[in-house]
Amino acid sequence: MSSAPIHAGRSLVVDAVSHRFGPSTALQDINLDVKGGELVALLGPSGCGKTTLLRIIAGFIAQSEGRIVIGDDVVDALPPARRAVGIVFQNYALFPHMTIAENIAYGLAARGASRTVQKETVARMLDLVKLGGFGERLPRQLSGGQQQRVALARALAIEPSILLLDEPFAALDKNLRLDMQIEVKRLQRLSGITTILVTHDQEEALSMADRVAVLSHGRLEQFATPTSIYDTPATRFVNTFVGSANELGGTVLGTDGDFLRVRLDSGGDVSVRAPGGMLSEGSRVAVCLRPEHLRIDAPGEDGFAGVVEMALPLGPTVVHEVRTGTGAALKISEPRSGGSLLRAAGTAVRISTAGPGLATAYPQTV
Hints:
Blueprint: E1 12-21, E2 24-34, E3 39-43, H1 50-58, E4 65-70, E5 73-74, E6 85-88, H2 100-110, H3 115-128, H4 144-157, E7 162-166, H5 174-191, E8 194-199, H6 202-208, E9 211-216, E10 219-224, H7 226-231, H8 236-241, E11 246-256, E12 259-264, E13 269-273, E14 284-289, E15 294-297, E16 304-314, E17 317-324, E18 329-335, E19 348-353, E20 359-363
Parallel strand pairs: 3-8, 3-9, 6-7, 7-8, 13-20
Antiparallel strand pairs: 1-2, 1-4, 4-5, 9-10, 11-12, 11-14, 12-13, 14-20, 15-19, 16-17, 16-19, 17-18
């Protein structure tokens, strides 16, 4: 099978979109510029506004302010059926009384496509999702993963401008979820369709998306590549929500080249990034350090003191929980070689950062 896209995806612009439900603000001034053929994840906790934004793009909700632009067309006045948007819901929403072929052909029939076009498209879609020969079965005769592939085939059959995926993997078990993530990524690349994925799963967003939009309380915290989101988070929320992060209090000592030098309350100094701009000497800050950016040193070396409370072997890595002198609990991850011993509870250690600029400092709020 050729790896060339079936058709080039259209761009999507979310231009200053805000939305209110009565007195409550669900979205506030959201701006996204999605390239044609790109897969973008809307990531955030429950209630952050990501599903509301998806429904606005689809046309199910009319936003309070702003515009939705697909390609060169402002689509705010168009109903969902005329936006040529394909949607895959969390529960798949297949018609139980229809065969798989009839489910896939439903959108085409509603648009007045001839029976010949319907038949040819259904056969092509079944081959695309690797379900050739399943056309005469009913949804109840398929597994959850197979039903999801049918839902994808139905959405792609109408050749939509944008594909919208609303938490499509939430109902699947872990192994099947990974298989389907790979399958959806394959289909998205093969079809070349611009795709918006709503998820609260960080790993899903970081592994699948070309770029990730992190939302919190209706605001866009950061819109960037997965590596930028993880390595250089723009806000404290992004740092603590995406991946795992330890937080320690500290005081700014001054500048250290392009970084800030901070004295930690636990002891020791660290060189940190300050994405919000350089902070003045004496400012109180919250320093975020990822578990893999900390290291455990032998007693007597630089850093600050701690005591191991627990060791958790997780395949190729081990995570130690270490209590500092100020009572803060830190998670520190290290590679685990075969046969290596875990540090016992009660072991006194020294803790240091793995390098300058790996930690990030944010103004400390009460």
